[in-house]
Amino acid sequence: RDCLEKQDLVERLESTPPSRRPRPASLSGLTESESRTVETFSKVSPAVANIQTSQVAQAPFSFRSMEIPDGQGSGFVWDSLGHIVTNYHVIAGGQGRGADKTLVRVSLQGGTKQVVAALVGTEPEKDIAVLKIDPSEMTLTPLEVGTSSELRVGQAVMAIGNPFGLDYTLTTGVVSALGREVAGAGGRPILGCIQTDAAINQGNSGGPLLDSQGRLIGVNTAIYS
């Protein structure tokens, strides 16, 4: 009888379409979806940059300069040459406030070392800035670039950044809408933006928005509150 019941079970499983069969959990006890998210975060998080800015100004009643911490944001490694992409508003904080210059320092996951970055390009109307660090000073892992034109509302996305100074924080969600318009740092609206319900907070600015495969599909720029 046991053999007959086992044979009946085998026949029923074989007749069940693969899409309807239950998916086993991974060896670590995670679901298949959770395992993919963990693996993707592990793969792409080394490409996420923690960006800290400070302002250099002349000290009152002195000829010496002083450095004043100004802000923090996120960015990501674009290529192996040392280019780091972030938001323009992340690195533009001290302009127009009496600062002589802005110092930008970059650190990557797994290291305490901060490297001074040079500003090599800006597009304020798109709220984009490009930094450059010496590639010999850090191990660089560029992100794979996806295609935002093929996005669909409802597909899974993830954001990695440094909200409130909590470095390398992962949040997940979906594409909530496409073709949104947000105000750019230069005053003009940025068209064709992606709306997501993945949590984005202060400090996430400049960090990557990724698809479920870990491919770059956008830059986290603004929150609505």
TrEMBL record:
InterPro entries: Chloro_Bact_Ser_Proteases, Peptidase_S1_PA, Peptidase_S1_PA_chymotrypsin, Peptidase_S1C
One of the GO biological process terms: proteolysis
Compositionally skewed regions (Basic and acidic residues) per UniProt: 1-14
GO molecular function, one term: serine-type endopeptidase activity
Chain positions covered by the region annotation Disordered: 1-35
Keyword Protein biosynthesis attributed: no
Keywords: Hydrolase, Protease
Family from the record: Belongs to the peptidase S1C family.
Pfam families assigned to the protein according to its UniProt record, in alphabetical order: Trypsin_2 (PF13365)
Protein's name in the database: PDZ domain-containing protein
